[in-house]
Amino acid sequence: MATTKKRSECPISCSLDVWGDKWSLLIIRDLMLSKQCTYGDFLKSEEKIATNILAARLLMLEENSIISKLNHPDSKAKVLYKLTQKGIDLLPLMIEINLWADKYSTLPAERKAIVEEIKKDKEGFIKTQTKELKKVIL
Amino acid sequence: MATTKKRSECPISCSLDVWGDKWSLLIIRDLMLSKQCTYGDFLKSEEKIATNILAARLLMLEENSIISKLNHPDSKAKVLYKLTQKGIDLLPLMIEINLWADKYSTLPAERKAIVEEIKKDKEGFIKTQTKELKKVIL
DNA sequence: TATTTGTACTTGCAAAACGCAAGCAAATTT
DNA sequence: AAATTTGCTTGCGTTTTGCAAGTACAAATA
């Protein structure tokens, strides 16, 4: 089991107990950018997560209801992962990370474009993106 | 040296390279709640960080300009840690974590009170708190 | 002034987590 | 039927963590 003991009742601490490692938020990032990913899609990401670590994180995130599996429409061999509502609700947090990083470092062009869009209308971006991500749930 | 190699240019990944572990955001939380902390103050926190881990994280956060040291007014033996502007700018992120945790779990009463205040006027809360935290810089 | 206490760390070591490579079973393609 | 793809698991060496003890210096106490 990937279920860990809580260190305290603090909301920050409890949140970190779930996704506070070097990889979980990158998995969630991939799902926010791609809506749905296969196991292989995650492995293709730039940061090159190890396959055993990926399996462990996916299990952890699923146990904590942040992601869920669904059948791939084309093939039984493939598994699709998507964000649950709880996972989608991490979008504002993800946005703030991007804004912070934008303030203190140089972003790659394609990410910079997204951040500029967010800066223009943060609430609008969240609403639109949330709607897009929710479509996948159905 | 605590300086690690970047895994990619992704803003999420780069941010996680700096504070994406189980302890850094708890240190930052303590500084946001208390404005200034000594080494001993951090050790007193509920989560009971190990002293060697604390020293390593404080160094990492200082190297990345998120916190800085200052002389304690009363004693040469004591060291005060505070957030830099870069650290203070993590406040919106910290707030979103609290809001997310509030949505999916039960917060301790004193933290719940803060979250309710945030919900009433998020921007106002950020402005006020930022101003409070900046005072310590001077 | 000598001694004890407080504060900020460092060190040693066992345990856990990580990272890489290889392996494996079921599904799919050729 | 054989080869390939896909989603994992397993082994194993390395790194990080966590706990306990130790150290150096400042400050308080006797």
CATH superfamily of chain A: Winged helix-like DNA-binding domain superfamily/Winged helix DNA-binding domain
Stretches with pLDDT under 50, minimum 5 residues of chain A: none
- CATH hierarchy class name of chain A: Mainly Alpha
| Helical run tally of chain A | 8
Oligomer: homodimer
Protein name (chains A, B): Transcriptional regulator
GO molecular function, one term (chains A, B): DNA binding
Domain HTH hxlR-type (chains A, B): 10-109
Keywords (chains A, B): DNA-binding, Transcription, Transcription regulation
What does this structure look like?
Chains A, B: This is Transcriptional regulator. 2 copies of one chain form a homodimer. With 138 residues, chain A is mainly alpha-helical. Chain A has a single domain, classed as Orthogonal Bundle (Arc Repressor Mutant, subunit A). In chain A, 62% of the residues lie in helices and 7% in strands. Chain A contains 8 helices and 2 strands. Chain A has helices at 11-19, 24-34, 39-44, 51-63, 85-88, 91-104, 109-120, 122-137; strands at 67-71, 79-83. The first copy, chain A, has a two-stranded antiparallel sheet with strand order 1-2. In chain A, helix 6 (91-104) crosses helix 7. The model of chain A has no long low-confidence stretch (mean pLDDT 95). The A-B interface holds A 7-17, 20-22, 25-26, 29, 46-48, 86, 89-90, 92-105, 107-108, 111, 115 and B 7-17, 20-22, 25-26, 29, 46-48, 86, 89-90, 92-94, 96-105, 107-108, 111, 115. Chain A binds a DNA duplex (30 and 30 nucleotides) through helix 4.
